[in-house]
Amino acid sequence: MKKTDASTRRQTGVTRIAEVRRKDLIDAAIATIADLGYGDVTVQTICETAGVSRGLIGHYFSGKDELLLEAVRQVAAELGNTTREAAQNAGLDPVAKLHAVVAASFSLPVFSVEKVAVWTALASNARLTPELAKVYRDLWRDYRSRLIRLIEREAVTSGRTLNAPGIALTFTQLMEGLWVGWLADPGAVTRDAAEAACHDYLDAVLGPRDI
């Protein structure tokens, strides 16, 4: 029994080390995508950023492409999870939930130079890489479907006719455009101005918030 317990502890320790190293490589990939752009990232640049040897990537990923794809997936998943949690914590009112999604989309951990840069790289490279295209489509389709359900709930509550798919589509493209604008010209497209523009759009189509 003691040998089994010791073996289990060793295995658990190895697993935790592997998880940490894998996360370090993913974080380094995110940082290098932000610094260099998706197409210019190399194994060497990732390893230099992570402070590890070139051979370590092969222990956790089949190669650079799998690592980069996992980095992009992580950023996309974080956006989805953060906005989903924000909506869940915003109470029962669907309009309040929508505005909570806006606030979360322009706040840490998803709204940072690195994360927005990765998202911009994903959008610009999705047309060229089927795997990236799937990550992009899946994230936005899920995001829009959640917005559509909230807008449809507001239509029932208010007794109004609302084009939920159209509102959701316009909102997501507005938000993404403001993300890109902030990354390219943060002096003109500030974080506060970008977030306010999204709140204003929802106010315009759904009515002003009770604040």
Tell me what you see in this structure.
The chain has 211 residues and is mostly helical. The protein is 77% helix and 0% strand. Helix 1 packs across helix 6 and helix 4 runs parallel beside helix 7.
Short account of what is shown:
The chain has 211 residues and is mainly alpha-helical. The protein contains nine helices and no strands.
* Rg (CA only): 20 Å
- Pattern of helices and strands: HHHHHHHHH
Beta-strand segment tally: 0
Shape: elongated
Question: How far apart, in Å, are the first and last alpha carbons?
Answer: 62 Å
Q: Give the mean pLDDT.
A: 89
SS summary, helix count: 9
Topology:
Blueprint: H1 2-36, H2 43-50, H3 57-60, H4 64-88, H5 94-105, H6 113-125, H7 130-158, H8 164-184, H9 191-206
Helix pairs in contact: 1-2, 1-4, 1-6, 4-5, 4-7, 5-7, 5-9, 7-8, 8-9
Spell out the key features of this protein:
211 residues, 77% helix, mainly alpha, elongated
